[in-house]
């Protein structure tokens, strides 16, 4: 019974803070509520006995990436980040958004379907570092390398944008 109450508590906190991230007009408050979302997701991972994933969630996402977001917001300011209220999205962007949401929903359904065979495994084996490393570097090596490439492209893009902004200000 206490696990059920804790699950609903952490799930509702994660859902409310995630909705605040989406609908917030202030980018700084959105990032701070994203930190709350990440901590509540980490608590849900702890409840699933995936301790390694919970610690990675806190250290990497809440600790490093979101602090970097806050640092960039504080450094660059928030002027001009959000579009004005008069700006409207065209039909192409709406179609793209619906297509993206449908792809993510189909992917989520496939993930739920593929995790049905994990119920046979003992819960202490699922979240171990050894099994995560074995899974990443054997079954999901291509996806792991593609994510690394995407992150590298993102870093190069940010450096390029920052360099252009410095050149414009000089």
TrEMBL record:
Acetylation as a keyword? no
Gene3D superfamilies given for it?
Answer: NADH-ubiquinone/plastoquinone oxidoreductase chain 6, subunit NuoJ
Give the stretches traversing the membrane. Answer: 6-23, 30-52, 58-77, 89-112, 141-162
Please report the record's description of how this protein sits within the membrane: Multi-pass membrane protein
Query: Where does it live in the cell?
Result: Cell membrane
EC number(s) recorded for this UniProt protein: 7.1.1.-
EC class (word) = translocase
Question: What is a single molecular function from GO for this protein?
Answer: NADH dehydrogenase (ubiquinone) activity
Q: Which domain of life is it from?
A: Bacteria
* A Gene Ontology term for the protein's cellular component: plasma membrane
Name the catalysed reactions.
a quinone + NADH + 5 H(+)(in) = a quinol + NAD(+) + 4 H(+)(out)
Q: Which UniProt keywords apply?
A: Cell membrane, Membrane, NAD, Quinone, Transmembrane, Transmembrane helix
Summarizing the function annotation, the protein's role is: NDH-1 shuttles electrons from NADH, via FMN and iron-sulfur (Fe-S) centers, to quinones in the respiratory chain. Couples the redox reaction to proton translocation (for every two electrons transferred, four hydrogen ions are translocated across the cytoplasmic membrane), and thus conserves the redox energy in a proton gradient.
- Family according to the record: Belongs to the complex I subunit 6 family.
* Protein name listed in UniProt: NADH-quinone oxidoreductase subunit J
Provenance organism: Candidatus Abzuiibacterium crystallinum
Upper taxonomic lineage: Bacteria, Pseudomonadati, Candidatus Omnitrophota, Candidatus Abzuiibacterium
């Amino acid at each position: 019974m206490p696990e059920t109450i804790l699950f609903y508590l952490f799930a509702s906190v994660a859902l409310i803070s995630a909705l605040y991230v989406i609908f917030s007009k202030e980018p700084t408050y959105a990032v701070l509520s994203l930190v709350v979302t990440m901590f509540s997701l980490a608590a849900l991972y702890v409840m699933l006995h995936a301790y390694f994933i919970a610690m990675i969630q806190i250290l990497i996402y809440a600790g490093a990436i979101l602090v970097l977001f806050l640092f960039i917001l504080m450094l660059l300011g928030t002027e001009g980040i959000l579009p004005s209220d008069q700006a409207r999205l065209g039909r192409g962007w709406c179609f793209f958004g619906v297509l993206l949401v449908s792809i993510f929903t189909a992917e989520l359904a496939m993930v739920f379907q593929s995790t049905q065979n994990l119920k046979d495994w003992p819960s202490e084996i699922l979240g171990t570092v050894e099994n995560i490393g074995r899974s990443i570097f054997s079954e999901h090596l291509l996806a792991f390398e593609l994510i690394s490439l995407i992150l590298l492209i993102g870093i190069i893009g940010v450096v390029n944008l920052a360099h252009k902004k410095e050149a414009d200000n000089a």
